[in-house]
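REQUEST
  id: r-88c1
  op: predict_structure
  target: Ubiquinone biosynthesis O-methyltransferase
  payload:
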Amino acid sequence: MTDATVTSETGSDQGHQTIRPEEAAHFGKLAREWWDPKGSSAMLHKLNPVRLGFIREAIDMHWAGDVESVKPLAGKSALDVGCGAGLLCEPLARMGAEVTGVDAAPENTQVAALHAEGAGLDIRYVPGELGSLGLGKFDLVTCMEVIEHVADKSAFLGQLAGHLAPDGLLIMSCPNRTLLSKAFLVEGAEALGAVPKGTHHWEDFVTPEELEDLLSAEGLKVTRTKGIAFSPLKGLHISDDMSLNYILTVRRPVE
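RESPONSE
  id: r-88c1
  status: 200
  body:
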């Protein structure tokens, strides 16, 4: 399950369109159910706490901040690319960041803005082609379960790189292209109704090795990769097993 579909922006292909209109339309139709933990985004509600644990640890490691602080992102800017209805933006705002969420489906950003307002959070949500928005650079860029929905992955990653501040941190997650992910995330999850039909296209999943090569071509270095695995006892959890899904941290190499 993804948080949305998105496009690209500043970088080697400024303004290059990477969005698939049918993907944006698919997720836009789900917007009203996004915050319902028992609705069509139920899988995201189970996945989000697992990702947040990894993200918080990555923030602490990257900026060597106070691990006890409730606002480790105070004074920093964050961009969530493919924000959906704001499931990740809101926790980032609570961590103290000045947050911008971008999504290709305007239905999603409308729902996200209303939910943030109701929660008393000041989050900027911007719909549309990221490449036309001129948002600038951010200390933290997150992109969860998005690249597998993007048509031109190289251009998209180039644009993510263009939004990353020189000492910034990029965090991405993606389903791995394995037989397990095909059986679990596509055939199984969609058949059981855990994920809306048509959400995943297995051939578009990206392996960790492929993603690392694509990021390296944009001058970025993967610094840590962990799996997001599932077991009946633990549910979804961070693991060394990357056969289902994985999450990684990226930065620019130190000169």
